[in-house]
Design a protein that fits this description.
Blueprint (H helix, E strand, L loop, with lengths): L31 H11 L2 H8 L8 E2 L5 E2 L2 H8 L1 H7 L2 H6 L19 H6 L3 H10 L27 H23 L5 H13 L3 H18 L1
Antiparallel strand pairs: 1-2
Helix pairs in contact: 8-9, 8-10
Amino acid sequence: MPVYDGVTPWYADRPVMNINQGFGVSVSSKQPKKALKFLDTMLSEEWQKTLSWGIAGEDYQVGADGVFSRTDEQRKNYKDITWRSHNRLDALLDMLPKHQGKFSDGNAYSPDDQPAEFYATLSDYDKNFMEKYGKKTWLDFMNKIAENPKYYPAWNIKLSDAANQVNQQVTDTSVQNLPKIIAGKPADFDKNWQAYVDSLHKIDVKVYEDAVNAGIKNRLANW
């Protein structure tokens, strides 16, 4: 993959925990222990497989080697909105805490992440393309995934109201200026670029930078 000289490619990274969304039990709940027990049960591998893959023998097969697979009809059902509305709990699965990666038996949590299943859903053109390069997934073209830095990702660091306002100002400025720079006449590039830079200089970006750096230092010290 293309990179600057002396820089190691890092186009692919590990999934990160979503810390911006949570799941709780109301203080008004009359059966809080049962509610938590329900969540605990839903997080078991048995139920995670049911919620993600479906019912063995109906929605997928388990091979002699223990690997999950699906028929073309089962893959078609999985993508059919009407079928899903009658056979899956998508709304529940979307909101519940859930697994990522692989189960203890080596199968992927999501059918779409099972290498053979992913390959089976490709068009003949893409399969031929993959075969020419000796690859099975698009991720195979990327760097070997390294461990994420302890503070990663900085984009989900909780910011103060002041820092959020600055961040929004930077975003608004980009939305207003970048289309002119990208789609404008080549002869106007320097003028449009300077206008963009001048607009950014009017924003106190240090408020945002300081907030992000403080968040990074906190994670390095405590995570």
